[in-house]
Each structure stands twice: as C-alpha cells, then as structure tokens.
Specification:
The structure is a homodimer. By secondary structure, chain A is of the alpha+beta class. Chain A folds into two domains: about 5-75, Orthogonal Bundle (Arc Repressor Mutant, subunit A), CATH 1.10.10; about 85-240, 3-Layer(aba) Sandwich (Chorismate lyase), CATH 3.40.1410. Chain A is built from seven helices and eleven strands. In chain A, the strands form three sheets. A six-stranded antiparallel β-sheet of chain A has the order 5-6-7-10-9-8. A three-stranded antiparallel β-sheet of chain A has the order 1-3-2. In chain A, a hairpin with a 3-residue loop joins strand 9 (about 210-220) and strand 10. Chain A binds a DNA duplex through helix 3.
Chain lengths: ~240, ~240
DNA sequence: CAGTGGTCTAGACCACTTC
DNA sequence: AAGTGGTCTAGACCACTGC
C-alpha cells in the first residue's frame, strides 16, 4: 500500500481505501452475489496491508449488508436469494404478529417510454425505454399490495410476463439470478391517500378507502438507481413497521 | 477481567462484557447525557483489558447512537439536546425537499388511568397513573401533526401544561433535562386511516380525508418503554421518509 | 488437521483539541 | 506539550467448518 503522506490532500485511512477497492470489485462483478470472496489474509497480501486493516474494511461492508461473514467458512457477497435476506426490504407485517406469506399475481408487463419524473429518478434520459410491471400480492386470499414497477429496459432485457409468472420468490432475487443486478439500498416516501378506481379494483376496496402509498427507489452498487416502485398497501389489518434509533 | 474459561457456559467475548458494563453505567446514570465518559485508556485500566478491547465495545455503542466520539476531546453520552440529534426520530419531510421547522401547540396535559392495552405496551399495571398530552404541530400556519402522548406518571412527576408551553424544543430534550430520561430507540407501526371528527378538527381537514397514523413506543436504557405516541400526519404535502438497507 | 473468521494484546504513530 | 480518539501492525490464540 502506498504511503499515507497525502500531504496537502485530504487524509484517507488505509482501510477506507481498501473498502473502496473491495466495493469496486463488487461493482465490477469480480465476485458474484452468494460467492466467497478471498480470505482476509489473502486480501491483506494482495493490498500489502495487515489482516486487521482488511478486517476493518470488511467490517464496514458487512454492516452495510454488502458482505456476510460466516465463521470458519469465509466472507460472502450478500444476496437476496439467501433465506435471511428474502424479506429484507418488506416492512409490511400483519397486525396479528403472525408471519405473513404473500402470494404473487402478475397483471401485466409492458414496454413504455420514460416520462420526465421517472427518468430523473432513474438517472436516464426522458423517453428512454422502460418496462412496466403491475403486480398484486395476496395473503389468505385477500389482496394486500398493488404495485407498479418500472425498470430501465437495457438492464432487464428479455423480462416478460412469462418469466415473471414462472418465478416463485422475491423480485429482487429474480433480478440477481436473471439480470446480474443486486439491490443494495432503497429509499421510500410514504403517504396516506384514498383509493382511486384502479386501486379500488386491484385491492378490492371501496372507492375512497384509506391506502398507504409507498414510493420506492432502489439502488444497486455505486448508488445507481435501477427500479422505481409505486406500492399501495391495504393497511386495514396490516401495518408498516419501522424502528428508529 | 475474569478468564474466558466459561467452559460449559456460552462463550461471550470480553468486549461484549465491557459493553454490558458500560451500558449498566449509562443506565445507572453514572454518566449523564452530554457528559464525557472516561478515556479509553482509563476504562482499559479499570476493567483490566487492553485499549483495543474497550475501543471495540465503545464502537458498538456509538453505532447504536448511545455514545458519540469526538476526536481530541473524548467520548460523550448521546443527548437529544445536541443539535445533530434534535430530529433523529422525526421522519416527516416536506415534499418540496426544503427543511421544515414545526411549531408546537400544546392542547392539554391531563392525568388518567392506564387502560390495559397501554399498560401492556408500557409494561406497567392496568389502572396505574398516566399523563396524557395532546399536541398539534404546525408548519407555515398549517396544522401538520396531531399527537396524543402517554407517559407513566412516576417518571414524569410534575409535568404539566405550563412546563410544556414554556419549553421550546423537542419533547425528548425536555424529558432529558427535566426528567433524566433519555430515549434510545423507538418502534413505529404505520397505517393509512381516514380523518375522524377529532382529527379533522385538530388538523383542519375534511372528515374522511386520508391520514397517516403512526403508533410509536419509545424506549430508554434497558429496553424500558416510557412513552406511547399516537400521531396523525397530514401527508397532503409532506411524506414519511425511510431508508432500507 | 488445515483454513476460515473472531478476539485480544502491546506498542507505535497520526490527527485533533486544549492549555 | 499533554491528552484524547483514530489508525496500523504483528503476533498469539480461540471458535467454527469441512475434509
């Protein structure tokens, strides 16, 4: 590793530089989701630093849910295919407290041109190709979630209704296995609205019923936005859970 | 520090034991919010471990927002009186993206007996004394938030409307300065509902308007619940923000 | 048994604050 | 200059996994 004599430049600890290099390798796809990365000693040798320094870099990446350590086995690239990460981004829970298993019902998968608002959120140009998915999720026969999902076509080339209907599991897992896209982070904006006619039909509610509207933008490595989701939750017997600390 | 020969017992790393002792000191009020705790070397000497071990314990407490490090100055007990922690628990943001300064309007502060549901959430007995506060918060003259707040009387003895009206700042900061109670964590359950008559009056909305209902339980040291809050947000031009990772 | 991550130490030195 | 947190190292040993 080069000396720390950054002189006038801003000081950056070694482990931050290592972290950045690991991040670059993840983004470049050098190690795929679910795979082991080299051992701490191997990385230490590669970057010519001590094991403790590599360890600190990996520590931060694990707290960001980008890597997962398994004692005795190695350090792995996080994946939504993993059991424990299946519902990492789902904050909806039944009031009863019992676990909830949602069932997918895909309504459509169409092509469209990106309107200005979506283009801005996805950092693409207005009018570029998007894929629009409509989905309803049910629990015990009752429709709970109605979502519209928009994806940039280039990254998700070939995604169609047949593919979706053949898939049994979280969409984020499909993105990984079929489109080499791992979601790292998402931001949500939540509002209370009233059910419009489309929403009332999909969720089988009365017109004007209260609906939780969740607007989500999901990001892959490098803070790249690659999915917009507009979800409507029927919160009559479910709620959105959050922890503040 | 005692040896690690926990033999049959479950293994617990030294730094976890140190962390538990620091936590106990915080809970016991040995160091008050805003104060410095002893230096890492001092603590290392006290517990007869190396500085690195104390450091790792403190590391975890800082990521939990219980302690705050300041290079060159020391490590401090986190406080809601601190600028950067003022709005740690407020997730409501204006759609415009501009900063929002809410103005307090306290409506009432009454005594009542705890109904069963609240008693369970606060881990007290049904019928014990509670304080009930009603508050409206406005932004640019428009009522945005209507909250009912319930506190166990013993801990908040002497809290009345006059005290509240004299206070200018977050309630959590008042709890700290007047009742030695520091909030550490909170859980929220969020639903979309329609405005009832009380809510419509407080928030000046139409009856049946969509309202974001947020049920919050806040905890102090030792996972002790000490506040219940039932908030209604008018999300017509604000939204609740959340980040998933 | 070897290889992995996890803990702990002792010591050196850097960066920042205060006197 | 002294005291604090922050970084980095080298080495020892523990806990867990898999051959």
């Amino acid at each position: 590793m080069s000396a720390n004599l950054t002189s006038l430049a801003t000081f950056s600890p070694l482990y931050q530089q290592i972290k950045a290099m690991l991040l670059a390798s993840l983004q470049a796809g050098e190690w795929q989701p679910g795979e082991v990365i080299p051992s701490e000693f191997e990385l230490a040798a590669r970057y010519e630093v001590s094991q403790g320094t590599v360890r600190k870099a990996i520590d931060e990446l694990t707290t960001q849910n980008l890597l997962i350590r398994k004692q005795g086995k190695g350090t792995f690239v996080a994946t939504h295919l993993e059991e424990r990460h299946q519902f990492r981004f789902l904050r909806l829970a039944p009031d009863s407290g019992l676990p909830m298993a949602l069932k997918n019902h895909f309504l459509s998968c169409k092509k469209m041109k990106a309107p200005a608002i979506m283009a801005r959120a996805l950092k693409i140009k207005t009018g570029e190709n998007l894929i629009e998915i409509e989905r309803v999720q049910t629990f015990a026969g009752k429709a709970i979630v109605f979502e519209q999902i928009w994806l940039p076509s280039p990254r998700f080339k070939g995604l169609d209704l047949a593919t979706l209907e053949a898939w049994d599991g979280p969409l984020y897992a499909l993105y990984e296995s079929a489109f080499a896209t791992h979601m790292v982070r998402a931001t949500e904006k939540i509002k209370a609205v009233t059910s419009d006619s489309m929403c009332a039909q999909r969720l089988n509610t009365t017109l004007g019923a209260p609906i939780l509207l969740v607007e989500r933008v999901s990001y892959t490595y490098g803070n790249k936005p690659v999915e917009i989701r507009l979800a409507r939750y029927d919160t009559s017997s479910q709620h959105y859970e959050n922890t503040l600390s």
